[in-house]
Specification:
The protein is an alpha+beta fold and 536 residues long. It is built from 16 helices and 23 strands.
Length: 536
């Protein structure tokens, strides 16, 4: 009888999970009981600047230590957060914002309107929503220490929604001296004004990151609702433990060494469900779309035929079996707007074929003039699903004669290297796999994956002027039907020039100990305020 991986692991866990936990983790665990929460995030935190990168772990870090002008509630309606009062002129062209009382930086200095203006301008360099505001703005300036204005050349009814949007890079407000740095250069300071302080003294890069409750944070009085309302911190400290091996992380969760595990292995969900102390919980019910991003600037994917080859090559069902083995958690996706948006549609999707079409892919590579050049796939080894998908993509390419090569690295290194626009010989890249919230893909004004404006676009730098002209009309139409019509036009163009390729959609539950409650379920961001931890 063959013994499965699941049986081996189950036996090991049953025999005594604490034995498999590295002694260094047990030694570092403080005896703070219910006042300290240990979390295992999907990857190591390498980048601390949530404007420089759209990586979700950095966005979670940003949500902890920074604050926002507006935030979305659970119905995705924008609500004031740092803003106390705001208004718009009769001609809808001038917005005035006044900061609420009690806002202060972790270094003890007050938050000012000048900080907000500098942060807006920096965010506007890279975020699609910010770029739209900057294109419409005639002036963004502070009037006094607590008041600033955004003056527009023409009305932009979605302005407040854009300010509140939770698609990374989100508009986190930084100190003016930090925000004055160009968005292409990382901010290394971790001084914010949010509900948590980053504890640099206790943080150990590659091992753990510590966040302490900001005792001077003045919360809003409204009840917590989504990411809006009061940000009440109920614990003294949150520690992100870096445990790259998923089985070790799950063992630590079972042993009570950690309280939260963001990416439990899908084939071990049943172990979590059978443990009376643990529970699976879906925080983002819209789920995640897995995406192949190709480098438009370098061969062979500067040729549309090569990009079309990847579109036809992909066997979505096979990729989902690797990334989300339980079929109840995954599905195929053929719309650039995901599966849950009112703008999801079937325009120009005849390329989709169950099992993929490797013969067509091979033909298209030949038409692109591909002559055996090395294609480098950035492979995130500490993100299990991404690692598996990268290996499957490399194998599929090699099967049709493409010289595909994996470049193994952790996600932190990948998130740095993908910014390199040069050829592979100079540290560049050809392909990487990532994910995007299915919810966020419903808004082409704010989602970086849906921009195709070349150097200003997200990594891969897709460029198509016809598509951008249609996307540019989105902000100026008001009815759902008008936007649905634009969505079909956009998708029709996108699948012709192939801005990226989708691998499927999956929902990824987190695993937690039942003593940890109060987690807020929203797309993209996993906030640490509102959580409670009971004594075991």
């Amino acid at each position: 009888m063959q013994i499965s991986r699941r049986q081996i692991l189950k036996a090991g866990f049953a025999a005594g999970t604490a034995l498999s936990i590295p002694s260094v983790l047990r030694a570092q665990t403080p005896s703070a009981g219910a006042r300290t929460v240990h979390m295992v995030k999907p990857t190591d935190l390498r980048v601390f600047d949530p404007i420089w990168t759209a990586t979700n772990i950095t966005a979670d870090h940003g949500a902890a230590i920074y604050d926002t002008l507006f935030s979305f509630d659970s119905k995705f309606m924008p609500q004031p957060q740092m803003v106390g009062k705001w208004g718009v002129s009769d001609d809808k062209k001038t917005y005035t914002f006044e900061l609420r009382d009690g806002l202060g930086w972790h270094d003890g200095t007050p938050v000012t309107a000048a900080d907000c203006v500098a942060s807006l301008r920096r965010w506007g360099q890279v975020a699609p929503g910010g770029q739209l505001i900057m294109a419409h703005a005639s002036d963004i300036s502070n009037k006094d220490d607590k008041t600033f204005t955004i003056a527009l050349k023409e009305p932009l009814g979605l302005l407040v929604d854009l300010l509140a949007d939770l698609t990374p890079p989100c508009l986190f407000i930084m100190r003016e001296k930090d925000a004055n740095r160009p968005a292409t250069q990382q901010v290394t300071s971790t001084v914010g004004s949010g509900p948590f302080k980053f504890n640099e003294a206790l943080s150990k890069p590659g091992a753990s990151y510590t966040y302490d409750r900001n005792e001077k944070y003045v919360s809003r009085k409204e009840p917590s609702d989504g990411l809006a309302g009061g940000k009440i911190v109920n614990v003294d400290r949150v520690i992100w433990d870096v445990i790259a091996d998923q089985q070790t992380a799950l063992a630590a969760l079972q042993a009570g060494e950690v309280d939260y595990f963001e990416t439990p292995p899908a084939d071990l969900y049943s172990l979590v469900e059978s443990d009376p102390n643990l529970e699976l919980q879906i925080l983002d019910r819209a789920g995640w779309d897995a995406v192949v991003r190709m480098n438009f600037l370098q061969p062979p994917f500067n040729n549309v035929k090569a990009r079309q080859a990847i579109l036809h090559l992909i066997d979505q069902e096979a990729f989902m079996r690797f990334m989300a083995p339980d079929p109840k958690y995954s599905s195929t996706v053929t719309s650039i707007f995901g599966n849950t948006s009112p703008y999801s549609n079937d325009e120009n999707t005849t390329w989709y074929k169950k099992g993929g079409n490797p013969e067509k892919a091979n033909q298209l590579f030949k038409e692109a003039g591909y002559a055996g050049e090395k294609i480098v796939i950035l492979d995130p080894t500490d993100w299990h699903e991404g690692d598996s998908a990268s290996q499957l993509l490399a194998a599929a390419l090699q099967k049709i004669g493409v010289n595909a090569e994996l470049a193994p690295m952790d996600w932190g290194a990948l998130s740095t290297r993908r910014a390199n626009k040069g050829p592979v010989e100079e540290g560049g890249w050809n392909v990487f796999i990532t994910t995007e919230s299915d919810y966020s893909l419903g808004n082409p004004l704010t989602d970086p994956f849906l921009a195709a404006n070349g150097d200003q676009a997200w990594y891969g730098w897709p460029k198509n002027d016809e598509y951008e002209a249609v996307r540019g009309k989105w902000a100026n139409v008001e009815s759902l039907e008008e936007r649905k019509a634009l969505a079909r036009k956009m998708q029709g163009i996108w699948w012709d020039f192939v801005g990226d390729v989708r691998l499927g959609k999956y929902v990824s539950p987190i695993a937690r100990r039942k003593t940890l409650t109060g987690l807020i379920g929203m797309p993209q961001i996993v906030p640490m305020w509102s959580i409670h931890k009971a004594e075991a």
